């Protein structure tokens, strides 16, 4: 996909549906971590952009160091996010408020779902991927759906997630 942002759509929908049991922040960190290798390969003008990190084994290898990075940087991220919300006086962004320190399992789930879903979505559209490596070079879901449909699915899931967030936020304001 054209780098990380479009991957966030399914994460937003999942966060909207699972609430505090899933960290969208951790999911986002995982998306960025996954795209470091393709970025480096683009800058080096490599022929293959999606190497070992874009395999399921590689996703696990990315998730393991990403988890403590997210865990320890989360309070700083939360403070910065609150500063943006308050500094720019965008009260509607409060629906995306983050805790200073979430529970461990939502962060771990966000990182794991982030890295593995990244491999799934990119496996559908990138011909240079071998997601089952080192066990197989088969590409079982390559071109399962068109790139346009995949992008539309990711964007639509993001819109659905935003709509759910907005409805929940509006309902909570009515109760207050």
Compose a concise summary of this entry.
The chain is built from six helices and no strands. The protein is an all-alpha fold.
Describe the fold and architecture.
With 176 residues, the chain is mainly α. The protein has one domain (4-175). Helices cover 64% and strands 0% of the residues. It contains 6 helices and no strands. The protein has helices spanning 8-18, 24-34, 36-43, 56-87, 104-125, 147-175. Helix 1 (8-18) runs parallel beside helix 6 (147-175). The chain is globular, with a radius of gyration of 17 Å. The model has no long low-confidence stretch (mean pLDDT 90).
Q: Which residue ranges are poorly predicted, with pLDDT under 50 across at least 5 consecutive positions?
A: none
> Quick check: average pLDDT?
90
- The helix count comes to 6
Whole-number total of structural domains:
1
Protein name: DUF4184 family protein
Keywords: Membrane, Transmembrane, Transmembrane helix
Transmembrane segments: 54-74, 103-121, 150-171
Organism: Pseudomarimonas arenosa
How would the blueprint of this fold be written?
Blueprint: H1 8-18, H2 24-34, H3 36-43, H4 56-87, H5 104-125, H6 147-175
